[in-house]
Request: fold
Amino acid sequence: MSRERCVYLITSCKGGVGKSTVAVNLAFTMALCGQRTLLADCDTKNRTADLMLGYDGVGMFDLADVASGRASPVEAVLRDPRCEDLFYCTVPPSGEVVDPARAASAAVSCADAVGADCIVIDTSGGIEFPLAIYPDVVYDAVIVSTQSLPALRAAEKTGAELSHHGVRSLRLIINAYDGKKDVSYIDGLINKTRIPLLGVVPYDEHMRRGQERGMPAAAVEESPSPRAFYNIAMRLRGAEVPLFSGMRVRGRKKKLSPYRREDADDPGRDSSEDMYAV
Ligand SMILES: Nc1ncnc2c1ncn2[C@@H]1O[C@H](COP(=O)(O)OP(=O)(O)O)[C@@H](O)[C@H]1O
Ligand SMILES: [Mg+2]
Reply:
């Protein structure tokens, strides 16, 4: 494995928070930005990334085949027809028990085979898989939560468990943010989990519907999410990007008061632009 390769493992011990949505769209965005990216679908319970990308029904070898020598890594990789830098490999659809460490090592072989410099790993709810593969495959953990308290608590628990087992890089994505609350509300969410914030993805009905047709957000014209994933991809590359840069965030309008000159001078200014993710 090349030293420069980055591996992002998308996780939370809670299901339904948007892990696969984030994995698929982050991988797609990185590939669109020219990073050769392998999306490794390691949801051993209920894989969905193939559906979200429209690969359902495409017969292919899987990571269990690679691990057992039934197929070569290159035979188990699919290249996305829309984006030449995006590659995909997967665990078996269901039934077959896959050893996490062997599946992860097979995914790394697949990345080597196609020269991917980035691996995005989708996982099921629960942290058995993330714990089982670390530190054989050293990854940056991207913990996904919605803004709901149970999801945030699950994120906090996931971060604590991973950190306890030696995972050093932990970051949080707040997904399906409804924008109804003031932007300072995000501060409170960060404090609840104590995990550094990587980005915020809006609630996006267009993206959700697109997924049902096998389209990533970047291929859905009305979707506001591509910019959110672009910002996240840039931050992962080390760029300082304001939290909601380029995003249309609904939220309360600032009330103007004649006694607050700074507001009156620039009523259109959006304070959310000032918040930086880490
Ligand atoms: N930002 C979002 N806006 C709207 N719907 C979303 C968003 N993120 C996820 N969803 C929807 O929520 C459901 C669960 O998302 P999914 O990514 O499968 O979660 P997980 O992988 O954590 O189980 C899916 O129907 C998906 O389309
Ligand atoms: Mg999933």
Remarks:
- The chain has one domain: 6-274.
- Residues 19-20, 43, 48 surround magnesium ion (ligand 2) (CB under 6 Å).
- Strands lie at 6-11, 37-42, 78-79, 86-90, 118-123, 140-145, 170-177, 197-202.
- The longest strand covers residues 170-177.
